[in-house]
Amino acid sequence: MTRARIHAPLWLRITLLTALIILLTAVVIVVWVLPDFVDRRAVVDESNDRPAPEAAKPVVPRAEQVRLAHEKREAERALQQLLERQTVLEAQQVRVWGGADYETVLMRLAEGDAEFTNKNFAAAATIYQAVTAMLVALEASKADRLAAALEQGAQALQNFDAESAQKNFIIALAIDPRHSQARRGAARAKTLDRLARMLASGREHEQKREWTLAEEQYRAAQRLDPDSREAREGVARITATIRQLEFRAAMSDALTAIESGALPEARGALERARTLNPESAELVDAQRRLTRAIQAQKIAHHRTRAQRGEHEEHWQDVITEYKAVLGIDPQAQFALQGVGRAERFAELHAQLDTYLDAPDRLQSPEPRANADRLLHSAVSLAGKGPRLQEKLDTLEDLVRLASTPVAVLIRSDNQTEVSIDRVGRFGRFSESRMMLLPGTYRVRGTRVGYRDVRLEWTVTAGQAVQTIDVRCEEQI
After folding, report:
1. What distance in Å separates the CA atoms of residue 281 and residue 161, rounded to the nearest whole number?
2. How far apart are CA 472 and CA 474, in angstroms?
3. Which of 25, 71, 220, 310 has the lowest tally of Cβ within 10 angstroms?
4. Which superfamily is assigned to 406-469 in CATH?
5. What is the pLDDT along the chain (476 residues), one digit of tens a residue?
6. How far apart are CA 294 and CA 116, in angstroms?
7. What is the C-alpha separation between 412 and 418, in angstroms, rounded?
8. SS3 of the chain: helix, strand, coil, percent, to 5
9. Which among 246, 300, 234 is positioned nearest to 273, based on CA atoms?
């Protein structure tokens, strides 16, 4: 504990100083002037007023007078030292903090004064010296007394004993008026009764689970006494309870929203819960559930779009949607199967479009054969939609037309040798009828002495009879 000297009021200091000066003056007169004056007065009285023999008093021997005067001076010197020490301690408010020990000092001082009055100067000096020692011990005990007063004051505050707290902190402040703990303790002691009522109200509301009211009371108590441990712990406890209740409510809202598919609301509830208890394992589990629910919702969304695309036979869109599902869950079997199925249909549509966009290709034997194989492979294909079936039917008609011979009439001059590449040589004739598959043919006419004729002739499917003239008419 820090020791600090207590400064007495100015008027008290002046009064004590004046008294001390008067006392010292009296001591000088008593010690140095009075004995000589008494001795001289005794001689004068003895010579001038010598009493009658029958009225004379016993004469004190000179040696005895000297001894008494010496003992008196010693007693007065001891008293002077005592008074100096007492004056200092009085200025330090020893009457406040000295307690029973200072009362003993005052009682012993009174005993010394009584001995002095009875001219028992040696006994008085002994008592004065003992009292001075007691004052020295009192001054030396200030630090211990300060520590004890602070400790007992703190204990009284804890026990809500306002009277004892005030008493001990007054003692502490008398020893050290600037001591911060003592000042705070004295201030707290003044509000201790109000604090006790607020804390009691807070506990009552807490027992009734009236959390908001309990928090208000504990916070009011904390504002009244920021050093109150019970108020501080009450605020912390109720705040934690309210946070936990709010956390539970947020978690309940989140789980309910997840179950009902209201995922944005679930996300908001989990955010509230995270601000209240970010380290909760329950929060982590709920976040996983929300993530899975969001993924499931996205998967369901893509699956619905993919199914709509299948229904509408937009196979590229179907592939895109199923691949989006696989981006979320690579093991989703329906998406794996759906991608394979969509890719097969998309490829089939692309192949059909190759022939449908250029049906003349079917007039060539190899493309026509490929188209025919394509049609046969699609016969057993399950899940064909109307658009695909329409394309298959159209290609089948085109292949059938391309595979149906068309009546062709070739006219000539009966002089020209007529041949058709990849069909045959037909010699000379004036008219020749034959059946040719639709397609483009190269017809050649030759005649001796005449320039050859080369024609490219397209037999169109579906026409009744097609005619061509082949004659070599330009002589060489």
Report:
1. 45
2. 6
3. 25
4. Carboxypeptidase-like, regulatory domain (2.60.40.1120)
5. 333 333 333 434 444 445 555 554 554 444 444 444 334 333 334 334 444 444 445 566 788 888 899 999 999 999 999 999 999 999 999 999 999 999 999 999 999 999 999 999 999 999 999 999 999 999 999 999 999 999 999 999 999 999 999 999 999 999 999 999 999 999 999 999 999 999 999 999 999 999 999 999 999 999 999 999 999 999 999 999 999 999 999 999 999 999 998 989 999 999 999 999 998 999 999 999 999 999 999 999 999 999 999 999 999 999 999 999 999 999 999 999 999 999 999 999 999 999 899 988 887 888 889 998 998 988 888 888 899 899 999 989 888 888 889 999 999 999 999 999 989 999 999 999 999 888 888 999 999 999 999 999 888 887 778 899 999 999 98
6. 104
7. 8
8. 70, 10, 20
9. 246
Token pair listed for 119: 């001219």
CB contact set of 205 (below 8 Å; sequence gap of 6+) = 211, 213, 214, 217
Question: How many angstroms separate the CA atoms of 3 and 172, rounded?
Answer: 10
In 3D space, the residue among 29, 338, 7 whose CA is nearest the CA of residue 178 turns out to be 7
Distance between CA atoms of residues 143 and 277, nearest Å: 49
Residue spans of the domains in the chain: they are 10-140, 406-469
Q: What is the C-alpha separation between 289 and 90, in angstroms, rounded?
A: 78
